[in-house]
Amino acid sequence: MELDPVFLSRLQFAWVVIFHVILPAFTVGTASYIAVLETIHFITKREIYLRLSTFWIKIFSISFGMGVVSGVVMPFQFGTNWSRLSDAAANVLAPLLAYEALTAFFLEAGFLGVLLFGRHLVPRWAYLFATLMVAAGTLLSAFWILSANSWLQTPAGFQVVDGRYFPTSWSEAIFNPSFPYRLAHNVIAFYITTGFVVMGISAYFIRRGTFAEEGKVMMKMTLWLLTVLVPLQMYVGDAHGLNTRQYQPAKLAAIEAIWETGSELPLTLFAIPDQDAEKNLYAIEVPYLGSLILTHSLDGEITGLKAFPPEDRPFVALPFFGFRIMVGLGIIMLGLVIWGNWLRIRGRLTTTPLFLKVLQLTIPIGFLTVIAGWVVTETGRQPWTIYDHLRTADSMSPSLTGLDVLISLLAYVIVYVFVYPTGVILMARIVRKGPRSTGHGEGDSPVEAGRPEAPVLAGAIEN
Amino acid sequence: MNPVLDFVPIWTAIIALGVFFYVMLDGFDLGVGMLFGLAPDTPSRNLIMNSVAPVWDGNETWLVLGGVALLAAFPLAFAIIIPAVYFPVLVMLLSLVFRGLAFEFRFRDSENKTFWDHAFAYGSGLATFSQGVVLGAFIQGFEVTDRTFSGSSFDFLTPFSVVTGIALMFGYGLLGSGWLILKTEGEVQASARRHGRICLVGVLIAIGIVSIWTPLAQPVIASRWFAFPNIVIFAPVPIAALAVAFFTWRALGSSREAGPFIGAILLFLLSYLGIAISLFPMIVPYKYTLAEAASSEATQAFLLVGTLFLLPIVLMYTAWSYWVFRGKVRGQFGYH
């Protein structure tokens, strides 16, 4: 079998980016949640908020540590595997990444030490400031990285000279056509992802009976957030879809598996897209709904895949199924929010066993949705790295052989398959111990001869 | 092009500064990681780890900044060099994964503590070795066709790059022992002084080997150093290095606490200067100069505005976080 370096590099990128993205999906939300809890505690001085914040800081520290180390991998991927893309696009793209490091990473890293270890070393206001700065850092990071990704999807503000891309307008390049939608869609998704983790852990505390009080406080807060964000996300997602239709028509056609250009199109609920035969098998369709959703009118026209040469089409099955998984999970989330509010009105939000049990099961729902969404947007733009300009096949580092990439891919697979479950197990262990007020003698590891158990705990313990 | 404003020298200075900050800061905490592996018991290991736990993350951020700033200011260099050192970069990244996670996992995963101890020590060692190998491969130069690296992914592996890999392990070890002398007391400090001396000897031997080997292998470098009047102008660099080495040796043996760390930093600074003198103005050695590899003026200008504004702020709050955790690291709640 011939080892294809391009295919393997794509696989490698998909692997490292999917594993990386689930961490920001969680840490962006958690950092903001910690900032909210610290602010409430700063104002009300109620001890329960301090306990909750300390508890979430422990979980945050693990996920953030994993996010940092998997994130350091990412910019190097540009150089190791996609050096021709780097050479071509660096003039526009690299400053965005550099600004991410300058504004976001240093902000997070600089104040993280204080957040984790410094509660007793700095004044209260300075500690609150540090939590706010860490939260701001995570959001700034999302801003820049999504700007860079959006530029690759819908490039703007540039000119091409000798196959290389030079900036002509920075505001157009940063605020490129799909960026506002992508930023809003992702940040809301990150908050929702964290929200369902918080709901699930609250449900666990309430069901178990220990820390039920903390669980109730978390659940009541978080349901408000989700009540606002889940419907908002559907609205933003719809707007993002209209934007995709305008700027990445082939991606939209692939998402909906529409082969023929036409109007009054049905919505395909399920089908098996057949790339070679250019049609869908076993399709289940709802008449007119496709045009209605995608164009907001019954007879809106949508460009089909056949309007693009076969070599310019994405592999349809991935965006098609990825999109259906994403939307399906979104509808489940909406159902949970409606159910929760109905229970809240009847005063049974925290006492309905079935609801609590379901919430525990749906802890990973946000992560799965985020991954599905990334698969849709990243496979949907193929075969381009810079949409309509630079092909994926022409973006690779020319010196790499299939074997080189296979070795590195296997190394990433082995390491991540080991590291991620370990992290999840450790976080589960923290959850099992719950938000205790002190960590003395009941922390995460035995006290060692008068030494602190962990630097993380050392800073977080109130005495 | 605009003849008045030339950003290339400014960016050269910024990147040189950024790389040096990375080497100095992550250098000492990687060195601490290697010395951690030599510590005799769990209490001293806890202490050693706590001495860098609040700051390692910020230190590693300089690696990301160095990488993306190189991509932004000298994209051609990034696009040639990084694929050429594909495997050392891979090993470095994966080592940094294990080492970074050890900070979080070691304390929470008591049944696998030994594993995370090893991950921290070997991860630090391997990451350091890989960086040294990258440096060696860089000094040796790369096979380039047009605008891409055209050699094989195993070209990096030469006796010279293995030597520079080992050299950097001694170098970071020296920085790490300087840091530990500063931050600890008693037994841990005493063994840091002993290890520091071993590392210093290793560093001096390595500097000697590289200083002889490089001019022999690269006539360009030989003529740069030994032609008149350069030999007079550049002579202070090796002489100062010897003086600093002597001062560091003495400081390691005395009761001075800041001396060894300062000495190690100066030694790095002088070696760094030596490499710069050898290679300037090449950024892809013997092939492309800084000016040839530079990005467009618009790119450099756009990033410069923010960098000149943000970098001082970054340095300020970085200094603040070091200040918060100043003083000796002790058992209870540390950092008093």
TrEMBL record, chain A:
Entry protein name: Cytochrome d ubiquinol oxidase subunit I
Broad class of where this protein is predominantly found: membrane
The record lists the membrane-crossing segments as 12-34, 55-76, 96-118, 125-146, 188-206, 218-236, 321-342, 354-376, 405-428
Superkingdom, taxonomy of origin: Bacteria
Q: Which GO terms describe its molecular function?
A: oxidoreductase activity
Q: Where in the cell is it found?
A: Cell inner membrane; Cell membrane
Q: Which keywords appear in this protein's UniProt record, sorted alphabetically?
A: Cell membrane, Electron transport, Heme, Iron, Membrane, Metal-binding, Oxidoreductase, Transmembrane, Transmembrane helix, Transport
Automatic annotation (TrEMBL), chain B:
Q: Name one Pfam family in it.
A: Cyt_bd_oxida_II
GO molecular function annotations of the record: oxidoreductase activity
Q: How does it sit in the membrane?
A: Multi-pass membrane protein
Where is this protein found? Answer: Cell membrane
Q: What is this protein called?
A: Cytochrome d ubiquinol oxidase subunit II
Tell me which NCBIfam families the record gives: cydB
| Group of enzyme by EC | oxidoreductase
Which keywords does the record carry? Answer: Cell membrane, Membrane, Oxidoreductase, Transmembrane, Transmembrane helix
Family listed: Belongs to the cytochrome ubiquinol oxidase subunit 2 family.
Primary location class = membrane
Q: Please state the Enzyme Commission number of this protein.
A: 1.10.3.-
Family annotation (InterPro entries): Cyt-d_oxidase_su2
Enumerate the transmembrane spans: 7-25, 68-98, 119-139, 159-182, 194-213, 225-249, 261-283, 303-325
